[in-house]
């Protein structure tokens, strides 16, 4: 069977995630996302007949699962290792993009919804943040943190890292990541008795 020359759905989703991480959702059209992924607009609409919101929702979920896979793997060695991997992942993205890219999940989350409804991409962002928090909280509990403290610390970690990525972009420096890493590692050690 001949292989299709059409771009894969996953490549379009990954390209959209990258574009959103650089420009935000409102400033990015589906046409620009398709072009960034080197995909014909027709193929993009074939895979995403509902348009920009559907593609953005998939881009958020794609990013969420990509980060979650890394977290799951690294959290096997404990919450401190998971945090280090989480920070390293975002450091790599910020540095390799010359401080132009951040987190597409955050980019979608901070934009004002177009109506009174919760758009699917925003709902997906909330689910992704909850997934990351859950993974971190589970690891913290497994390593000795009390249930309530684990949940609060997990939320703090996700919020601090996401905010720090934005600070790195603004300051064009990874120094905020270094400073936050040190403080979060200290909190993890205190919570787990390590």
UniProtKB/TrEMBL annotation:
SUPFAM superfamilies: Homeodomain-like, Tetracyclin repressor-like, C-terminal domain. The keyword Oxidoreductase does not apply. It holds the Pfam family TetR_C_13_2. Residues 6-66 form the HTH tetR-type domain. Keywords: DNA-binding, Transcription, Transcription regulation. The keyword Cell division does not apply. InterPro entries: Homeodomain-like_sf (IPR009057), HTH_TetR (IPR001647), Tet_transcr_reg_TetR-rel_C_sf (IPR036271), YxaF_TetR_C (IPR054156). Residues 29-48 bind DNA. It comes from the Bacteria. PANTHER family: HTH-TYPE TRANSCRIPTIONAL REGULATOR LMRA (PTHR47506:SF3), TRANSCRIPTIONAL REGULATORY PROTEIN (PTHR47506). This is TetR/AcrR family transcriptional regulator.
């Amino acid at each position: 069977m001949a292989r299709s020359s059409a771009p894969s759905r996953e490549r379009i989703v990954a390209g959209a995630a990258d574009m959103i991480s650089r420009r935000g959702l409102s400033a990015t059209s589906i046409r620009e996302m398709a072009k960034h992924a080197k995909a014909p607009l027709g193929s993009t609409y074939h895979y995403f007949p509902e348009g920009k919101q559907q593609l953005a929702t998939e881009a958020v979920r794609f990013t969420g699962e990509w980060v979650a896979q890394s977290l799951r793997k690294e959290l096997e060695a404990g919450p401190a290792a998971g945090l280090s991997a989480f920070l390293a992942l975002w450091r790599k993205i910020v540095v390799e993009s010359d401080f132009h890219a951040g987190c597409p999940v955050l980019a979608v989350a901070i934009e004002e919804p177009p109506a009174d409804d919760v758009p699917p991409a925003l709902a997906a962002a909330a689910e992704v943040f909850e997934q990351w928090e859950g993974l971190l909280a589970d690891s913290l509990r497994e390593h000795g943190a009390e249930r309530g403290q684990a949940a609060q610390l997990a939320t703090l970690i996700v919020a601090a890292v996401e905010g720090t990525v934005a600070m790195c972009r603004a300051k064009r420096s990874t120094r905020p990541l270094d400073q936050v890493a040190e403080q979060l590692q200290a909190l993890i050690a205190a919570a787990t008795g390590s």
